[in-house]
Design a protein that fits this description.
- The longest helix is centred in the C-terminal third of the chain and has 19 residues, at 330-348.
- The chain contains twelve helices and 15 strands.
- Helix 7 packs across helix 12 (330-348).
- 36% of the residues lie in helices and 19% in strands.
- The chain starts with 16 loop residues before the first strand and ends in a 10-residue tail after the last helix.
């Protein structure tokens, strides 16, 4: 694994959006600065609730895409820019590497003790959410007998020449999206279907793009018929208000991701950051996250919105562990991206390509 390397241009990265909550600047007795890669509409309920139980607190939330957030956090760790108080990202592998490189400080509490072992690491990295990774489809345009309920179904749908899905399947651009890369790499480790899947994507002109909203908007308006490896949290929230959107938990396996949070080693307000983590992991915090769809329950009494989810998922959580560092090795990453890009590009040109994950 390569040592921590900070890019100088990380100092010029500007958040996509900055929002503040709680006390106005002139009345604030403390400020909690959070940098995250979670859309505000899903996360702000938790932020607002924490300010209500913490008088005088002002929260500044900076919304940054996963790869950019990783660059910023790396620069903070190297002392190039002032650190935030908390970093939260869906790119769990990047978060594990930052912690492994000594960028985090530990936090312990009774709330942390209740976090499942797969969703925490070294008392420094903690999972806040429970989000299945799903297939999204257009309910009006995809015939019921062609709704893919597993990756095997999806591969079979894409096999015939002249199928209706050519150019109509979308997924994350795994080179531009940190979490897109994580999910694709996790797929490659989970099953032998991955090679056949990217071959099918290549033959059918898959659209690799960013980001979730753009992709699911495309599914809703018929530009795409199917979207692969989407956040179930976002998809279920969208489906609840849009009858055009269907959501499938693949029956062969359903990856589960927990957004990973750590307190940077130089955080100005680590105690407040720790209190926020404890609140997020409390019963009230989890209720708020479930209401915001960031915790999806698969039981009737779990408080989530699983009834909107079609399928009987075989859940495979992405564990916080050094195994995730393998995909971030520079040579391994380059090989993986080359195979992905070449498979799709060559197959579009009619040239066979074989996927070799190692």
């Amino acid at each position: 694994m390569q040592p921590l390397v900070a890019k100088a241009d990380a100092r010029t990265i500007v958040p996509d959006r900055v929002a503040t909550y709680g006390a106005p600047p002139e009345d604030a007795t403390a400020t909690l600065r959070i940098q995250g890669a979670t859309d505000l509409e899903y996360f702000e309920g938790l932020l607002e609730a924490f300010t209500k139980v913490t008088p005088g607190l002002r929260i500044v939330y900076e919304d940054i895409t996963t790869n950019a957030l990783n660059e910023v956090a790396t620069a903070q760790c190297a002392g190039l820019v002032s650190p935030a108080d908390l970093v939260v990202s869906s790119s769990v592998d990047q978060q594990v590497k930052l912690v492994n490189d000594g960028c985090a400080r530990p936090h312990s509490s009774p709330a942390i003790d209740l976090v499942p072992s797969w969703a925490k690491w070294r008392e420094e990295l903690f999972g806040l959410t429970f989000e299945p990774i799903v297939i999204v489809y257009n309910r009006a345009l995809v015939p019921p007998d062609q709704v893919p309920r597993s990756r095997f179904d999806l591969i079979d749908l894409l096999r015939p020449e002249g199928n209706i899905f050519k150019g109509k399947v979308a997924t994350y651009d795994i080179e531009a999206s940190g979490v897109g890369y994580l999910l694709a790499f996790a797929d490659s480790l989970e099953a032998t279907t991955f090679g056949r899947l990217i071959e099918a994507f290549g033959r059918n002109d898959v659209v690799a793009t960013c980001c979730f909203t753009e992709i699911v908007d495309g599914v809703a308006d018929g530009r795409y018929l199917i979207a692969y490896n989407m956040f179930g949290s976002y998809a279920l929230a969208r489906a609840a208000g849009d009858p055009r959107i269907g959501v499938i938990a693949p029956s062969d396996y359903t990856l589960v991701l927990s957004r990973a949070a750590f307190i940077p080693k130089g955080a100005p307000n680590p105690d407040i950051a720790g209190a926020f983590l404890d609140f997020a992991l409390s019963s009230e915090g989890r209720r708020i996250l479930a209401t915001s769809s960031l915790i999806v329950s698969f039981t009737e009494d779990g408080g989530g919105i699983a009834p909107s989810l079609d399928g009987s998922p075989n859940l495979r959580p992405i564990a916080f562990s050094p195994v995730l560092l393998v995909g971030l090795d520079a040579q391994k990453r380059k090989l993986f991206l080359d195979v992905w890009n070449q498979s799709i590009r060559l197959l579009r040109a009619g040239v066979p390509a074989n996927f070799r994950p190692d």
